Amino acid sequence: MLDEQDRRVLAEIERALSRQDPALAARMRAQGEDRPFPTVLALCILLYVMLPMVMLMFGWIAALVTFDVFAVTVAVVLAWRRLRRAGP
């Protein structure tokens, strides 16, 4: 826990940051509130687990197709996030 003096110093730093760069201060305030689900990480973990099983059961061609589907899915997720962040 911070003592009273440290809290005052931290509050002054926050006020100075808000004056100098309001956009950064707004992003820092909103960062914890609107954190998206780590979709890309979940897809990579799923691919890591699933690819060897697909390879063993269906062969290397099916593994390549599975990898391609995951790559396209990750690209779509990243494009969707970028479009959503750009806004109307």
Write structural notes for this entry:
This protein has 88 residues and is an all-alpha fold. It folds into two domains: 35 residues; 53 residues. It is elongated, with a radius of gyration of 22 Å.
The N- to C-terminal Cα distance equals 42 Å
Beta-strand residue percentage: under 5%
Write the H/E string, N to C: HHHH
Please estimate the helix content.
Answer: over 70%
Number of domains: 2
> Helix/strand-derived class?
mainly alpha
Query: Counting H and I runs of at least 4 residues, what is the number of helices?
Result: 4
Task: Please describe the biggest sheet, giving its number of strands, its sense, and whether it closes into a barrel.
Answer: none
The mean pLDDT is: 88
**Unreliable sequence segments:** none
**Rg from alpha-carbon coordinates:** 22 Å
Secondary structure: number of strands: 0
Shape: elongated
